[in-house]
Predict the structure.
Amino acid sequence: AQKVTQAQTEISVVEKEDVTLDCVYETRDTTYYLFWYKQPPSGELVFLIRRNSFDEQNEISGRYSWNFQKSTSSFNFTITASQVVDSAVYFCALSENRDDKIIFGKGTRLHILP
Amino acid sequence: EADIYQTPRYLVIGTGKKITLECSQTMGHDKMYWYQQDPGMELHLIHYSYGVNSTEKGDLSSESTVSRIRTEHFPLTLESARPSHTSQYLCASRAQGRYEQYFGPGTRLTVT
């Protein structure tokens, strides 16, 4: 069965600090896809990144970076030099190759304090 | 990136009323989804569709129904709203051959 665990329910950091959001997943498939979404207070889920199981290369996009490690079944998300606008709920998610559905973690609420 | 529209954005309605939440996308995506998000943030898939005339129930049992008569349109209907239906409803779509879903802005429903 597939499962996504985001152990951090809520995190608060002061602006300009770095913060890492943890994500651990479970799947029996060898081909799968991992995602991160951001949900700002407006409510819309914004797609941030997709990672394929066969590509373990880490990715950086501006202040955002993602660390994918199959050995530990983790797909962590780091925000460098956090800003107040980063305050949101962040969801990690998983989709198996044979499934058209996405399984979401329960989300981590991130507060960036000025 | 998909353009997905949901109306209304906010709705307050009395118990027993019939309501339809609208969802439309302009990218020609075959696959569409409805999620219910409770106040505790967790997302629950309640309906999905692979294309026209295809609808399936999701992982969370829901009293709502959906239809897919046109590719771009995937409305959700509650025949008789109850306070337990108070939630945010999010619509999403996905392109063939891709795995990420793109979401609309959501409808916040309050049933009094």
Q: What stands out?
A: The two ends of chain A are 41 Å apart (CA to CA). The interface with chain B takes residues 33, 35, 37, 39, 42-47, 50, 89, 91, 95, 100-102, 104, 106-107, 109 of chain A (CB under 8 Å). DSSP finds no helices and twelve strands in chain A.
